[in-house]
Amino acid sequence: MIRPVELTLPIPADDPLAERRSSSGLACDPRCGEEPSIALHRLPRRKNDRRDRPPVIILGGGANALSVARSLGRYGAPVYAINLPGEHVRYSRFARWIRLPAGPNYAEVWTEYLLGPQSDRLVGAVLLAASDAALEIIARNRPALARRFLLDDSNPQAQLAMLNKLSTYRAAAAAGVPTPRFWLAGSLREVEAIRDELVFPLIVKPQLSHLFEARFGRKFLTAESYQDLHGALGRVGDAGIDVVLMEKIPGGDDRLASYYTYLDEYGDPLFDFTKRIIRRYPPGMGAACYHVTDQVPGIRQQALKLFRHVSLRGLANVEFKLDPRDGQLKLIECNARFTAANCLVTSAGFDLARFVYNRIVGLPQPPLTDFRSGLRLWYPIEDLKAFRTLRRRGEITASQWLASIARRQTFPFFEWSDPLPTVADLFHRLAGKLP
Fold first, then answer.
1. How far is 88 from 79, CA to CA, in rounded Å?
2. pLDDT confidence of residue 174
3. What is the value of pTM for the model shown?
4. Secondary structure class of 206 (helix, strand, coil)
5. What does the alpha-carbon distance between residue 252 and residue 257 come to, in Å, rounded to a whole number?
6. In which band, very low, low, confident or very high, does the pLDDT at 235 lie, cut at 50, 70 and 90?
7. What DSSP letter does each residue of 79-121 carry, written as one string?
8. Are 147 and 38 in contact (CB under 8 A)?
9. How far apart are CA 254 and CA 260, in angstroms?
């Protein structure tokens, strides 16, 4: 768990944005008690003057951070990236890399930088979260960060609740949103007491995904039997990670679908966007490697039930899986930030990075009304691996796979106008296979 850092710092006298902030004044943020924050939506702007756009700090993220950097960089905002050393955004021509020490306590390092004098030159910048760790940093340190940076409107308590899988499922159940069956996995003795209730296969899912992925390099563990479950709980127990047991919904990965929106200060959705997953790697448990934009019936209503129940604000994304046993969409997870598929959302006509940026700094924002269906986001290497696995299982043929990819694609990293992230990725992949 990231410890909140309480540090009050004055606005530097030599801050290049001080004149603009002084003209707009400081406002009391009701979420921060009596602590002043940089007033949102009130920075004076010269119409369509790209030079007058505040800089952006993108905190954490993978493909989504690169997508946000490209969008806002083209928009004319100076973009800075704080991230782990190997992430693609480091090599983008649209981002300026902020070099910070790496290591297991990187979140603490990022927090200290943002709240310390090292970041004084960026006071007044827009601060955006592109990972769970980044979202937690901002939510837990919001009062102090709001005195230094421009933050999007949010409900930190709701964001933290959606970060935790157990509290997400409990909130969904309270809101009447269908979920897989789930159980709290505390001690082995507690699990033994509910042994007769459990159904296999089971997913051993971390309550906080980013901590689990940093340790195990995967999203969850699967238990096919009680013996498997015993071993899995031993592994996560040794790592000190809290988990929840979740029923594994049958059916392929193509039953997974997502809904995106932005919730204003009244909890009203400002747009609707939906997509489906075609394949994941590894199949059934990994990250999505092939997505398609599509209209998904019924998903909006269930998503808004959950969002409104927890009073979520700002960006919101939720994933469901269609259960073939009863035909219901059942909750998988919720994200209150930019997701890995952000470049696909942008290609389909909904540039979420500019949408959020414009709301924060007070620039005119055209409404997001219709998105293009049928657009695809493809991870070629991972999808090839998924195809090979599925073919060995007899679930797909070579001709079926080729037919599925024989169309125009959006790629998560490659762009002709910004090729270096892809070159760096290929170099790192090749270097990893060298002796």
1. 14
2. 97
3. 0.85
4. strand
5. 12
6. confident
7. EEEE--TT-GGGG-TT-EE-----STTHHHHHHHHHHSGGGGG
8. yes
9. 18
